[in-house]
């Protein structure tokens, strides 16, 4: 890093954050994926919000991205990393971009901009408390509907927030991929 930012401390801070994030992106991508999965499971477990079909599909993206991130963290400690840095970070970017697209589809179904999948047209809420009644045959559980937002904050549902978060993660992945390697920096 050069001292081009001596006169502007804010610019220097941005440069340092950029350097830190892009240098350690596989670890941060892994940790971000793990955190988002933990938050989703907390909403389910403690908030009682059962996931719909599309919610579960969105979680799969974070499981995949977390696995790629963890493998990349290990590869960073090998001589292979200089050749694998670009494809690993681009793969993370592609996963997060796919996740943003899936979340956009889900949010659009919630806003009634287009229909959701037929596998997601349930009208009821599944809850752990209903499991015993279902096993006894006295109650039936319907999967949550994909076109009904179960939680909204600042005008966005979980799917809407997921669009923004996934896009941010995709952008950071591409920035990490385009980062000059330490050898040429």
Automatic annotation (TrEMBL):
<keyword id="KW-0472">Membrane</keyword>
<dbReference type="Pfam" id="PF02600">
    <property type="entry name" value="DsbB"/>
</dbReference>
<dbReference type="GO" id="GO:0016020">
    <property type="term" value="C:membrane"/>
</dbReference>
<keyword id="KW-0812">Transmembrane</keyword>
<dbReference type="GO" id="GO:0015035">
    <property type="term" value="F:protein-disulfide reductase activity"/>
</dbReference>
<dbReference type="GO" id="GO:0006457">
    <property type="term" value="P:protein folding"/>
</dbReference>
<feature type="transmembrane region" description="Helical">
    <location>
        <begin position="61"/>
        <end position="78"/>
    </location>
</feature>
<feature type="transmembrane region" description="Helical">
    <location>
        <begin position="90"/>
        <end position="108"/>
    </location>
</feature>
<feature type="transmembrane region" description="Helical">
    <location>
        <begin position="25"/>
        <end position="41"/>
    </location>
</feature>
<feature type="transmembrane region" description="Helical">
    <location>
        <begin position="159"/>
        <end position="178"/>
    </location>
</feature>
<dbReference type="InterPro" id="IPR024199">
    <property type="entry name" value="Uncharacterised_DsbB"/>
</dbReference>
<dbReference type="InterPro" id="IPR023380">
    <property type="entry name" value="DsbB-like_sf"/>
</dbReference>
<protein>
    <submittedName>
        <fullName>Disulfide bond formation protein B</fullName>
    </submittedName>
</protein>
<keyword id="KW-1133">Transmembrane helix</keyword>
<dbReference type="InterPro" id="IPR003752">
    <property type="entry name" value="DiS_bond_form_DsbB/BdbC"/>
</dbReference>
